[in-house]
Please model this.
Amino acid sequence: MKKNTLLTLLGWLILSTLYLLASLWIQSRGFIDLEAYFIQYKIQNLTRYDLSFFRTFYFTEPALLFLGSYAFSFVQVIQPSYLINALLMGGLSAVLIRKSWLGDQKQKMLGIYVLLSPVLLFAGISGGSLALYLVFYFSFFSLVLRYIRSYSVFHLTFLSLLLGTFLLLDRGFLKLLLMLIPIFFFVGFGKAKGISGNFFAKASAIFRNESQRRKFFTGFFSSIFLVCFIPLMGIFVFLILNRVFGGGFFYFETSLADVWNSYSGRFPLVQDDFMVWRAISEGSLRYLILIGLVSALSVFLILDATRGKSAAAVVVLALLYVISETAADKVQNLHLNLLSMMTGVSLAVFFHPTQSKTLPTTRFLAYLIPFLGILLEIFYFNQTVSQKERLALQVIQQPGETSRAASIRQIQAFFKEKGKGRILSDDAIFYPELSQLPADWTWEGHFSPDFQHALQQPKLYADYLLVTKPDQLLHLNDIVATALDRLDYHGIELPRKVVYEDDFALILELN
Model:
C-alpha cells in the first residue's frame, strides 16, 4: 500500500514538472493566456493597494482559481495559475495512469490517451481555469456513478460538498442539478426493497402500492434536497454578503472587472463580428461538430454494452447538457471549459469498476479509441472559435506572436525603458501590460481609490495615458478613452502627445 502511494506521489511530481516545463516552453513560443494575467494582476493589487482580501476574492471569477493561485503567489518566476494547473493535472494524470495500469485492457490503453490527449495537455499547460473544470467534472461524475451503484448517502453528501465548492468556480452550477434529477428518479426504482424484476415490473409495483409509492417519492425528494442543501446555502450566504456590500442592491453580483473578459465576450473568440457567432450556431452544424470532436470517448461508451446502461445514460445526459449550453446564441460557451465535461464523464466511466467481460469487438476498439480521440481533439484545436485554444496549437506548430501579445510585450518594454512614472489606464482591459511592470511604476485603475478623480483631472494623477485605439472593438468599453473623448468634446484642453502606437493601443504622454 505504501509502495503504491509513493509511486503515485512520485508520478505526480514527475508529471507536474513536465506540465510546468511544457507551459514555460509554450509561452516562450508566443502563447499568452489573459486569464492567467488577470489572476496574477488581482493578486498583485492586494499588495499594491490597501484592498480587502475578502472583497478582492469575492469579486474575482473564478474565485477558486484566484484562491489556489494566491497560495502559490510567493513563486516569482512564473505566474501562479500555471503552477496550480500543473499540480492539478499532474495529480489527476498520475491517479488515472495508476488506475489504467491496474485495470482491464481498455483502461490500460486509455493510459496512452491520458498522457497524450490535447485536452488534458492543454489543461495542464494553459494557465487558465480548464484544469479546475476538468478535475471537477471527473470527480462529479465519479461520485454520481458510485451513488448509482451503492445508493449511499455518503456519496450524496460528497456530491453536495462538491457542488458547494463549484460555487467558487461557476455560479451557474445549479443547471447541473437538472442533470441529477432524472438520475435520482430512476435510481429510486433500483433502491426499492422487496420488489424484483425488470424496470417496468418495479415501476408498476411501486405505483400500484400506496406505501411503496410514498417511500419512492420520499426518497426521491430527500435525495434532491440533500444534494442541493450545501450549494443552495452557499448561494444564500453569497446573496446576503452581496446585499451588505452592495448597499441594499445586488450591484456587485456581477461587478465590472471581476472576470478576465468581463468587458467583451467577443474578445476571446476568433470571430470579430457578433453576427458570425449567430451564423456558427444557427446557420450550420459547426457547434455540433466541435462537440463531437471532443466526445469520441463518450460516443464509444454509449455504444459499449459492457459498461452498463446506467453509465451510458449518464454520458447521454452530459452530452445533451453540453449541446443545450452551446446551442443558439450561447456560442460563447463553445470552449473547453464547458466541453471538458465530455472528457470528464468519459474518464469517470472508463475508470469506474465494471463486472462485465470485455467482448472481442470492444477489445479491438479499445486499441483504436484512444488514438482516435487524440486525433479528433487535434482537429478540434484547428477548428475552435476560441483564440486561446487555437493559439496553443499554432505556436506548437510554428512559433509566433499574435498582435495582442506583441502589443503587450512592446508596451511593457516601453515603460520599463522609461524607468518609473504614473499611468492612467482602464485596467480591466490593460491588466496584462500593467501586471508585469516594475514596482517603480504606479497606476490609476478600477482598484485605485483615486480612479474617478483621475478621469476628471488626468494630469494631476498620471504622466502617461494608456488607451485603446478608436478603431478597436474595446474602445467604447475603455473608460479612460471615453473620459478623454469627453474632455475633448467639452473643449477642455489636455496637452498630450502620442509616444507609442500599435494596432491595439496608444500611449499618450501628458505635457
In short: Strands lie at 421-425, 441-444, 464-468, 496-501, 505-510. DSSP finds 24 helices and five strands in the chain. The mean pLDDT is 82. The longest strand covers residues 496-501.
